Amino acid sequence: MTTAREDLLAAGLAVFDRDGFEGATVAAIRTRARASNGSFFHFFGSKKELAGTLFLEILGRYHASVLAGVAEPCGAQEGVKRLIRAHLDWVVNNRREARYLFEISRSEWTEEVRGAQREQNSRLAEAVERWRAPLLERSELLPMTATLFFSQIIGPAQIFCRAWLSGRDRADPRDQIDVLTACAIRAVVAPDAGNQPGEK
Question: Who's near 194: CB < 8 A, 6+ residues apart?
C-alpha cells in the first residue's frame, strides 16, 4: 500500500508528463492523488519542491539500474555492453520517468536539490570506478577521466533515447545496442585488450 507522499509523487509525475512543469498545478496533482490541500503542503512546500524531490527519487532509481550492470565482476568489453544495455532497458521500461529525467526537468527548478544531486552523481561515479579501476591498471581500458568515459558510453545511446522519448523516432532504442556497443568499445577499450581474463 502506498503512502500519501508516494501518491503525491506519482500524481506529480503523471501531471508533469501530461502538462509539463509550467502547465502543472498543485490542484491537478492533488486531484489525481486524491489528496487534500493540507496533505500536499504537509509534504511539499511548493510544486517546485515536489518536482525536485521527484527528480532525485527517479535519478536514484536510474543510477541503481545502471550500476546493476557492473555489480558483478566483468571485463572491459562486457562491462561496456552491460552499461549501455542497462541504460537503454531502463529508459524503455520506464518511459514516463525517463521523459521526466531527461526531457522535462529543468536546472532552474532543481537548484534546491543540487547538493543531493551531486551526492548521487558522486556515488554513481564511485561505483563505476570500482569496476573501471582494475581494468585501467591492466590497460584494458583507455585512460580518460570518469566524466569523459561515461559520456562516451551513455552519450550516444542517449541521443537515440531522447529521439524516442520525444516521439521524433518510434524505433526502439534497444535495436541499436550492437552498433552502440561496438562504437563505445572502440572509444574506451584498448585496441589490444581483446577478451582478457574475466571478459565474457
Answer: none
- What CA–CA distance (Å, rounded) separates 164 from 102? 11
- 61-99 tens-digit pLDDT: 999 999 998 988 899 999 999 999 999 999 999 999 999
Helices (H), the chain: 4-23, 26-33, 37-43, 47-68, 76-93, 95-99, 114-137, 146-166, 177-188
| Grid coordinates given for 137 | 591498471
How many angstroms separate the most distant Cα atoms in the chain? 63
The DSSP annotation for 116-153 comes to: HHHHHHHHHHHHHHHHHHHHHHTT-B----HHHHHHHH
Q: Which of 129, 164, 120 is nearest to 148 (CA)?
A: 129
Please tell me the distance from the alpha carbon of residue 74 to that of residue 132, in angstroms, as a whole number: 10
| Short-list 107, 117, 126, CA closest to 60 | 117
Distance (Å, whole) CA 194 – CA 140: 8
The C-alpha atoms of residue 50 and residue 157 are separated, in whole angstroms, by 29
d(CA 29, CA 79): 40
Q: What is the pTM of this model?
A: 0.89
Task: Look over the chain and give the mean of its residue pLDDT values, rounded to a whole number.
Answer: 91
